């Protein structure tokens, strides 16, 4: 993990991609009684999630620490998928949460809560509509097509901790896309790609939603999370294929999100099957 140093920026300078201002982020987000304890920005690391999980396991970090990297060399998504992006082309960060007031069985809502927070923050700060693909993908529209612009990864960390990792493609250009199905806020027509206000907006929305959810004891209905996620979920109402553990798959219409955050799929056999983990493929355009 390489600390941020102004002199380092000259080696990989891009006038369209200025470095994040860690001091300004701390001034705007760290406050007495708030969620965030510190905002750390490093020039490069393998994975912010791996770093924060290791620190939490060692017991030397408290809830509300945010680790941001200008570049990740070993970034991971769900199912241990690897991905990479040019330095300073996106927001790559992880947050340590310790939701002690919430029963562990409701912690599965944290990735969905984060998705709602990211969509809320980006709508406010970038003017971009972000749809949520269950359980953890962020979708934008580029040239009339649905593209993945980001993702969320939640991992248990030590005793009573969860690290939530977020990756968002901000200024990625068409010739930099890792795959044709990828997108970015810039390609989706964002009003601005200055990452400082984008990160502040996303983290403030996360603090707000996390506070509501925690105050409700993790009940997604009471805090409005289930309703809000459902309203912004691009998966519901679609014909999907769920690729499940054990080389099993289920095809049907995604009809609902249950109280545990599982996707309910109505199959052609008339069965409604809740899916708690798996890879979802959209088979029919919205």
TrEMBL record:
EC number: 6.3.4.15
An example Gene Ontology molecular-function term: biotin--[biotin carboxyl-carrier protein] ligase activity
The keyword Chloroplast is annotated on this UniProt entry: no
Keywords: Biotin, Ligase
Highest taxon listed in the record's lineage: Bacteria
Catalytic class of the enzyme: ligase
Entry coiled-coil feature ranges: none
Domain BPL/LPL catalytic: 34-214
Name the UniProt record assigns to this protein: biotin--[biotin carboxyl-carrier protein] ligase
InterPro entries reported for this sequence: aa-tRNA-synth_II/BPL/LPL (IPR045864), Biotin_CoA_COase_ligase (IPR004408), BPL_C (IPR003142), BPL_LPL_catalytic (IPR004143)
Xref: PROSITE patterns: BPL_LPL_CATALYTIC (PS51733)
Keyword field contains Ligase: yes
Organism listed in the record: Streptomyces nogalater
